[in-house]
C-alpha cells in the first residue's frame, strides 16, 4: 500500500535535525572549553614556572620571573625574526641570569623550541626543551624525562668549551650525540651556541624597558 502524504518525512526536517545536533555539539564543546581553560592555563603556567626555576634557581633572583619577561627576537642565524619572551632574573635590580628562547629549525622532524638559562658571567645554568616533534625513542631522547643528555650543558660557556668546539663529537666537537640520532642533538647544540653568542652581545646592555609582558 503506498504511503500517504501524512506518513512521508517532510524534506526540510532532516536538515533541521542535523543543524540542531551541530549547534548542540558546538555548544557543549564551548562549555567544555570554558570549564577546562582555566585548568589548562594553570597547568601551563606551572610547567613554565618549573622550567624557569631550573633555568634561574631561587638563589639567583628575588624578582617575579613570570612578570619580568621581555619580548625579543630570538637568536637565529637563518634570518627568521620571531618575537619570543626572555625571562630575566635579578637581585636588588641587578641582572644575575637570563632564560633565553631559541628555536633549532634544522631538527630531524621540524622545529625544536628551547629555553637556555645563562648566568651574567656567561655560564649555562640549564637547558629546557619546550617543544619538538622528534622521533619517539630516538630524537626525543633530548627530553629531560627520557635521558640525561641535557646534563652536559650546565656550567659550560663560550670559554669552556671554546666556540669552535660547540658541536657534537661526530663533528669534532665537545658534546655527546645520541646513538642513531645525530641530527637532533646537532641542531640543539648549534642553537645553544647561538644563545651564548647572543648573551655575549647583550650582557653589557641595560635591562630593556617598555616591552615587559605579564603573561
Automatic annotation (TrEMBL):
It is found in: Cell inner membrane. This is Ion-translocating oxidoreductase complex subunit G. Part of a membrane-bound complex that couples electron transfer with translocation of ions across the membrane. The modification FMN phosphoryl threonine is found at residue 182. The keyword Kinase does not apply. Keywords: Cell inner membrane, Cell membrane, Electron transport, Flavoprotein, FMN, Membrane, Phosphoprotein, Translocase, Transmembrane, Transmembrane helix, Transport. Its cofactor is FMN. It comes from the Bacteria. NCBIfam families: PRK01908.1, rnfG. Residues 107-199 form the FMN-binding domain. It is a single-pass membrane protein. The chain crosses the membrane at residues 12-31. The gene is rsxG. The complex is composed of six subunits: RnfA, RnfB, RnfC, RnfD, RnfE and RnfG. Belongs to the RnfG family. Its EC number is 7.-.-.-.
